[in-house]
Each structure stands twice: as structure tokens, then as C-alpha cells.
Amino acid sequence: MAPEWYNLDELAKQLGRDRRELERLVQRGRIPGHKRGSEWQFHSEEISQWLEQEMRDYSDSQLAQVEKTQQSTEVEAEVPVSSLLVPELIQVPLEARTKRSVLECLVEVAGRTWQIWEPSTVLKAVQEREELMSTAFNNGVAFPHPRQSCPDAIGQSLVAFGRTFNPIHFGAPNNSGTDCFFLILCRETRTHLHVLARLSRMVQLPDFLPLLREADTSALAYEVILSAERQLS
Predict the structure, then answer these.
(1) Which strand (E) or helix (H) includes residue 167?
(2) What local confidence, expressed as pLDDT, does residue 81 receive?
(3) Is 140 in contact with 167 (CB distance < 8 Å)?
């Protein structure tokens, strides 16, 4: 598949941002862009990776804007996470003690739906993304996912969750431990960004992570996740 490119006007529409603001940012090197003659061009994969990184510091309103501009027909707009999450995709406790074993266990959990056609391909893609930069945050949460969508390796987009009872080193910026893991496997980049923005909003809710860590079974964790998302819908 040929790479997808945006011009400045298309990027502004894609992101729901002012064209002049984006032009200033790309001129300052804040957005990955390629100058072709007098026009800026933007590769969709580079923009997706840039937006992922930017979202780490976004407020709830900024994340909500990402959701609005990245809405996907693959998910229910009001509950994008819940629409990709079923009870069998939750594992509490997640029996893993290392970063590699966490990823292996999560891919195994995802495989319970029979939507993972090539587990080894998915695992390799997720590991390569982690080698590029950890998806762990300072709050003990990580969002492992492939760097690029894997439409040939998965049947349907899905989200899987696992929690280890003891935090492990997963590469958080402040070197703190991580115990909550949301594996995001989407067939399309737009779906991925929509789901990632919603999960990022959910973890900003004051009670979400404390309640999630109190849930000592998969069933209880599932209800906590669904309840948190309903607060935002």
C-alpha cells in the first residue's frame, strides 16, 4: 500500500487545528514535515507517531478533540474502548514478571477471541514499538501497541487489559513500576488514535486507576473499565 501524504490544508482538517498554527509549528521543527518546493507535505505514519507523543501531555479537552477528529466507524463513538473490549480480553492477575512476558501474555489474552491470525507477527510488532520508545506512563499504566496497524495479522480491532499484582519495570519516564497494561490492536490508524485518546482521558479520571487496582478479578476490572468510560460518554 502506497504511503498516504497530507498537504497543510488536509493536515489542518485531519487534526482539527488552525492551518496557520500548524505552519508555524512545522517551520519550527515541532511537527515532522517535508518541504517539496514551496509546499509542506506530511506523511500519515509520521503524523500518527507525533500525535501519539503529543497526547501524553494533553488535557481532557485536547484529548476529546483528538477523539472528535479521529472518529472511526470501527467503534461505537460514545464508547470506543468498551466496544472493542469483551470479558475474555481481561486478565487479572496477569502472571508476568518481565516486560517481554507481559507482552507475550497480553497477546495470548488477545488470542482468546480468535481474532489474532498471526500471533508471532503481532508480538514482534508490539515489541518493536516498545524498543523504539516505551508506551509506559509515570502513573503505572502502559498502552502497548504496534507501531503500524496490522490488518493482515488481526481479524477485528480489539483492546485487551491485564494487571500484574506487582509493578514491573516497563520503561516509564520516571523509572517507576507499571502494573496496568492496555494492549491496543487496531486495523486502522484512525481507530487506534481514537481509542488511545479515550483511554488517555479515562486514566485522567481521579478514581479510575485506584478502583482498577482494587479490582482483584477479571470480572471486577471489566466493570471498572466500562463504568469509567460511561462517565465520559
Answers:
(1) strand 158-169
(2) 98
(3) yes
